[in-house]
Amino acid sequence: MTIPLTLPHRQTLNRRNIIKGAAALSATAVSMKFASAETLPPFGQTGSPTRLTDPLPLGPLPGSRYPDSHLESAHPKVVFGPAGFPAFAGTMAVERVATGFRWAEGPVYFPAGRYVLFSDIPNNRIMRFSEDDGHLSVYRQPSMNSNGNTIDREGRLITCEHSGRRVTRTELDGSITIIADKYNGKKLNSPNDAVVASDGSIWFTDPAYGIGGYYEGVKAAQEQEKHNVYRVDPKSGDIKVVVDDFVEPNGIAFSPDEKKLYVIDTGFTDGPDNPSHIRVFDVDHAAGKLSNGKVFAEMPKPSITDGVRADRDGRIWCSVGWGDPKEDGVRCYTADGDLLGKIHIPETVANLCFGGQQRNRLYICGSTSLYAVYTSVQGALKP
Known about the structure:
Strand content: 35-45%
Low-confidence stretches: 1-13, 22-36
Mean pLDDT: 87
Number of helices: 1
Distance between the termini: 86 Å
Number of strands: 28
Shape: globular
Structural class: mainly beta
Helix content: under 10%
Oligomer: single chain
């Protein structure tokens, strides 16, 4: 039996409903407020893979013949070969071995698997190129907009992450350990490149590129007053500043004997009066300190260098790009800073590493593609 409500009953019920509804709305608003406060940025920006309708051709670059014209000696009157520019290795040419990336960076070679890992920063992934069969695959996505990569003495991957604002280590079981994400209680800027010493210490650079926008990271406020070079102690895990006067510290590498540390300053990207060069320091590993810093090599502005590696004989190989297209590629210097020659690449080059079973194959990250060339030297045993 339905009992009709009188008007006063209806009014009372409506008032109760209104009060309950208001309370519910208020609770929802509070809930939404808390939810908004707890919202986190994505674990690295989600990139969109590059879809090429007409992909760049793989294999030797067009116009290649022996000796390859992409290799330019700084001393052409000297015999073209090991006595002149050590990029020459006989019957070889610069090859494009993989393509289809937005910004390739941070290559590292894993000899046990014969593969190269490298970052595709805007696409938020680490790629893997298998040297034995040329297979290309995604190693990790999202990668926290990873940039520089290296390998430690136990064969573990060390990665600098832009959107993570940290340096991580991928353990042999696949788990990830955070090596550094703060200094003095404040977030790092955006770690860029790293190198591991034979004592297990990790040295890395921390410019601000990865927090400047949403393309290669997540835009955020800078918490570190300066753009530093850091060292992580292998035993305690303590992090300390080893150099604090860079404009934008970038690529980093040890000499073969680890007595020297080379660090790139790409400060020119922040202003025309800023440096575009490589600096070199004496290393005191026992104390974890650097000293006697000086400019090792100047780059031809507006070009900058970004990545750097050493070979077993102490020569220094570095990337070149962002300026005159005729300078795009790789430069090779003696240990004294004299230019030996250039490898010309048809794109801006960001970074490079030695690989191959004999460590005589130079892998080059050039913007949208990965290149490789056999050399007549071997990369330093240390990363």
